[in-house]
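note to self: dont lose this again. the chain is below, predicted strucutre after it. 77 aa total, dont forget to put it in the shared folder this time
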Amino acid sequence: MDKDNSPSEIWRDPIVAEVRKVREALFAESNYDIHEFCRRLADRQANSGHPIVKRGSALLDESMAVAASPPPTTKAG
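---
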């Protein structure tokens, strides 16, 4: 592929670029420690004032039960 026609040169999404820039800044603030990064994100979320939506265990349990169910049997003959 020609150097001038590489996918990154053809089209660059400014929203994706902004998200990556912010992610890099936040990760740098955490000294590139994934545990510290996640702790800071959780603190930021908790202090944001926005409601935090959690998935209920009933929904998770139901989906797990469906996935773990054996397939229906059919009678041959």
